[in-house]
Amino acid sequence: MTEPDVQDVQKDSSPPDAAAAISVRGLSKVYRIYSQPVDLIKEIFTGRSHHAEHWALKDVSFEVKRGEVVGVIGRNGAGKSTLLKILAGTLDKTAGDVDIQGSIAAILELGTGFHPEYTGRENIYMGGMCLGMSREEIDRKIDSIIEFSELASVIDQKFRTYSSGMQARLTFSTAVSVEPDIFIVDEALAAGDALFSEKCSRRIREIVSRGATVFFCTHSMGTIVELCDTAILLSGGELMLKDTPREVSYAYDRILADDRHLQMKGTGKPVVQSRRQGDGAKEQARPGEVPADMKAELLSYGIYNAQGAAVEFLAAGQEYTVRAEIQCYQDLPNLGVGFRVETLNGTPVYGLQTALLDVNIPCQAGQRLEVDFSFPCDLQAGTYVLGGGLAELRAAGGYSIIHVLRGAQVFNVVGRTRFTGLADLKGKLLSVRVIQE
Amino acid sequence: MNRRAVVGCRAFPAAGNGLAERFPREEQEPETMILKALLNIPAYRSAFTNLVSLLRQHRELTLEMTKRELTDRYAGQVLGTLWVLMHPLLLMGVYVFVFVAVMKIKIEGEGTFTLPRDYTAYLLSGLTVWLACQECLTKSATSISSQANLVKQVVFPIEILPVRSVLSTAVTQLVSMSFLLIYLLIRYQALPWTVLLLPVLLFFQVIQFIGLGMMLASVGVYLRDVKDVVTVFGVVNMYLMPVIYLPAMAPGPFKPILYINPFSYMIWCYQDAWYFGRFEHWYAWIVYPLFSLFMFMAGYRVFRRVRIFFGNVL
């Protein structure tokens, strides 16, 4: 019977250069789920298994270099938090190797160590110490923490008197004042109002520019694209893809679309296609997999320029064509087709549906349709996501959705625009008059 | 940044990483396994050095957390930290009232066994210790399970959680012992020289309860019942030790219980120091330190063995 020697586990304090900060090989994690605490005792004494198993992580391997910013994305239950906790050392692993070089600070939750009955200032000390800072270190940093939190006027009042936004600001400010080699963050970025979140991302970038390795997980693809060098996509505990944020964002959107598709179809395994493998409409058609009750399928959505070439970079103010390719499997008296443009955060910008245009599209089984919409690209420069859907419109009114393809394409609008906001509503300057001298 | 790297590494080693493969599941008879573990001397030694160096590293945080535990409890209350004084004073007052004023218990010595002081002094010399121990047991049993966020959400040396429970109750004990000191000074205008040994006794008590607390805290994570078991034990055990009565007053067949109970030896040591003023129970002065040291090491061995699995259950 050997026992762990905590001393042994301590890493060499001199950080090695250029080597991987985090390297994970074949990491797996099984949660044993006991329906009642008694089951655990039964298992100890009888030696027979009394638990259900849940594989939260399956054979995950990757490396993170020093100074790299890595974002982990995945749906709920994909194993993100489990991965972060194992990296932080707060959870054991079932199999595999985790090697971490350097000091770690983890923010898996904001406000650890904060107590409502103490003042903001006292809480900064306790919270900071819980995150591994020493008293002198906090003494040194406390002014900048208070300044960052914008709470200087109330810092000596009790923490419980703060609004939840103020509490979030203080806990976040304390958390980001830690200066570790490796920083592990779990979805703690969205604290406070818009102005403050902007400051937060700036602060994260600052930490990054100091050479720290940052490893964080989030649901927001926008954050990943904005902050990360590399992104990791987890699904069902497996590492699906480790690539540039853009590639991963695309694959993630496909997972979401496929899962939605599955919820509709009710069978099968999600198919993940990276943009690289899945390029081209023909490859995306999967006639062999279509179940009998599928009435029609959106094969692809694309944006084409005046010359008929598929484009990913659109010039602001130019006219383009959005084309949907549809495979029909059944006769439908009235098929509805639509597309939608969203920002990376999922804010809908514009959408168009044949149903809204009072257009009837009848179709027959086996037909393949191509539907073109004009798309005047009067958008602000930036990155957008194009998606679309098919619906069956009923004669009596109403509709049922047949197929939704979210994130069919990510495109960028480039060029100089002469307005603020997302869309150009074609406002004009009418006149300038002097009404009083 | 370099400085931080060094401090950071020492402060929070990436504990847990690399632990799991260190215990391959051994296919052995449970009895031999337990026996082997019990007799594993190097493991005790490493547990001792580990824990001591750990506490040395985190002494600042430990002290701060202890201070917080004391003030946390009374934060936002009108009387605030005054309760730290009131609580033990009231408890001691009730016991003295019941056993001295109402029940009028008298104790007598026989033969060479002379009783140098009154019953109140006898009662309080054991009571001050066990009341604190009682509180300490319940507190440390929940010290980990009540701090799930520190265990799961940050890289935190959770070893100090049971330790701070012990240290914070030691403060309460110091308070109640100072009441006893005042009583003795008023009643006898003198103290036995043996009170000089109290710091030593207190030291062994603290390390014994750190070990015990770690054991209870680890089990308490898995079995929430531990907290209740311990609360009941704290009350019952007071009557299974010579705190209120003299060992001679216990009926014959029950006497062995007093000697089997490891906590009796601690009480005897304190009574020698406060009450008898001589080494009346010389054997207790051997058993108590040895048992304390054993608990300290054994408790931490249990704790470090299971700490990494806490995250699964909390």
Task: Describe this entry's structure for a reader.
The complex is a heterodimer of chains A (437) and B (314). Chain A has a domain at 280-414: abc- transporter (atp binding component) like domain (Coagulation Factor XIII, Chain A, domain 1, Distorted Sandwich), CATH 2.70.50.60. Helices cover 26% and strands 32% of the residues of chain A. Chain A is built from eleven helices and 17 strands. Chain A has helices at residues 6-9, 37-46, 80-88, 120-130, 135-149, 164-175, 194-209, 221-227, 245-265, 275-278, 281-284, and strands at residues 20-33, 52-65, 69-74, 95-100, 104-107, 182-186, 213-218, 230-235, 238-243, 296-304, 313-315, 319-328, 335-343, 348-353, 368-376, 382-393, 399-414. In chain A, the strands form four sheets. A six-stranded mixed sheet of chain A has the order 5-6-7-3-8-9, with helices on both faces. Chain A has a five-stranded mixed sheet with strand order 11-17-16-13-14. In chain A, strands 2-1-4 form a three-stranded antiparallel sheet, with helices on one face. In chain A, strand 8 and strand 9 form a beta hairpin. Mean pLDDT of chain A is 78; it is low at 1-17 and 266-290. Chain B is an all-alpha fold and 314 residues long. Chain B has one domain. Chain B contains 14 helices and no strands. The interface between A and B is large, with 58 and 58 residues.
Largest sheet of chain B: none
State the low-pLDDT regions of chain B, or none. Answer: 1-27
Strand tally of chain B, please? 0
In the predicted model, the low-confidence regions of chain A spanning at least 5 consecutive residues are: 1-17, 266-290
Order of helices and strands of chain B: HHHHHHHHHHHHHH
Which strand order do you get reading across the main beta sheet of chain A?
5-6-7-3-8-9
Based on helices, strands and strand pairing, what is the structural class of chain B? mainly alpha
- For the record, give the distance between the C-alpha atoms at the N and C termini of chain A, rounded to a whole number: 94 Å
Strand content of chain B: under 5%
- Mean of all residue-level pLDDT scores of chain A: 78
Which oligomeric form is depicted? Answer: heterodimer
Helix content of chain A: 25-40%
* Alpha-carbon Rg of chain A, integer: 26 Å
- Give the C-alpha Rg of chain B: 21 Å
